[in-house]
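Repro case for the chain-ordering regression, as requested:
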Amino acid sequence: MKTSTHPTQADASLPSPTRQEHDRAPKPTTPPTPPLIKRVGAPAATGATHALLVLWALLSTVPLLWALISAFKDNRELFGNPWQLPSTWHADNFTRAWSRASIGDYFVNTLIVVLGSLVLTMVLGSMVAYVLARFTFPGCRLIYYAFVAGMAFPVVLALVPLFFVVKNLGLLGSYHGMILVYTAYALPFTVFFLTSFFRTLPTAVAEAALIDGASQEAIFFRVMLPMAKPGLLSVGIFNFLGMWNQYLLPVALNTDRDKYVLSQGLANLASQQGYEADWSALFAGLVIAAVPVIGLYLALQRRIQAGLTVGMLK
Amino acid sequence: MNHGKTRIILLFLALPLALYGALVVSPYAQAFSISLTSWSGFTADKPFVGFDNFQRLFQDPDFWQALGHNGLLLLVVPLVTIALGLFFAAMLNVGGSDGKVAGVRGSALYRRVYFLPHILPVVITAILWQFIYNPQIGLLNGGLDAIGLGGLAHTWLGDPAVALWSLIAVMVWAGVGFYVVLFSAAMQSIPRDIFEAAELDGAGRFQTLTRITLPLLRESVQVAWIYLGIHALDAFALFMVLTPTGGPDNSTMVLSQYLYLSAFGNGKFGYATAIGVMLSLLSLLLTALTFRGSRDKNTIEF
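-- result from build under test --
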């Protein structure tokens, strides 16, 4: 099942009888009831329905707006009425969060770890997926199922042994250690998804290139990878959000305070808040951490919804 | 076709398999053997104790309490999230008043807005709600005060009676939008003529919903159930941030958190891993049960 690729199309493509009904309608604000349907008390139900839809929309947005506005208040105002706008908008909360509360460092750490892991995951994942999709060889099913099984177990089960594996490799609290671990745990889904994607791609071009004397590796990088772009993009978005979100792995393995990622650093800051703490900077830090994800979502809304839901329906 | 095949297979598999083997397969495999030891983490040898850890688990009231909380999450979170998701998806896709097979006005915008909480990183959601629930600066108590319901104010995360429910509310809040989008997609893949045929046969809107739309969504609901169930069995980040020590009187302790605190807080690595094994068995069981429950029925294809 292909998901969310055409949500708005369907909104527009009303079936023809309804559309005609609509065209004859006198007033668009109160849509008419199509005569085919016997509906008792429908207008009231619609009103209540709309109220519920609006209510949930408010529930979804008001907490975010409140956090955004609070990020501009000073500490004294924060302890006042939560519904009041700040008397002066304190943009300095953001500079304080960025430098004094180390959010800037955490942000950079997160970028390094997430982007590093993302690139490595996509490269390694598509290599494995391609080989599994295109060739049969002894052990290929075993390898495929080993990756699929990796999705079935909760990561917490591996946490204790993983801690010691990483420790013994001397990789605790290091960028490259985190990148390797993030990548390893992103591989199962990436391989699973891309294998089925590569299977759907036509091989005629690849075979023609092979006859022309191109090496298998060149075919992969020059022919197959470009063809797999839509799949790579979906799984890439999925992985990016998952990695930006990651908390369990860094909290156990990223033991060096200077290397904290955003989720970890923010959680740590939040847990140390007391009465004299810099709440407004923490709100600002929250906003800073949320902005890339929300920005990405607003820019690529459709793709993200598709990328996230596609993970479930395959 | 086979030219260079062996080389590319070896070349492309070597590094990913080494990485996956060392950091994923081996830790999972080790977990099962560590769960049979009383390892404290800092000795070279891991004293083998057989099934002692599991025996102790079954007599550990904290374990049962955490398991009970996971059980409650497993029951409530999927039920409420799926019900709300189905309801909103139905309103947005087939609940429009200018024809039963269309969505309400602005349904695309609603979907976009509902999805926002889901897109937030879990830790940000958790801290945000920590603020909202905060008795001094929080939005919730302030809001209740503002509309004259100040008597309902609580220390939401500090009161054992409401703490777990406060966390459940956050899980639902963050989840619903995703399932609205998921179920919307599924509803839109139902061919329009099915609705039109039902309409001609005189089916009302409610009948169409209960007799056509919902039965055809069975598969999506089932997937959602597994996903939410696995989520409810984990829930680590949310619980660790909102109630780092398991809440007042352990009232919000869940298994993943109990595992983490036993291992990295108390150095009981063998015991903690046994919790992990139990947790994994539960999630495998959940998946198996859900799939089994529906295997006899035919898949619907359009």
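Ordering looks correct now. Chain A touches chain B through 117 residues (CB under 8 Å).
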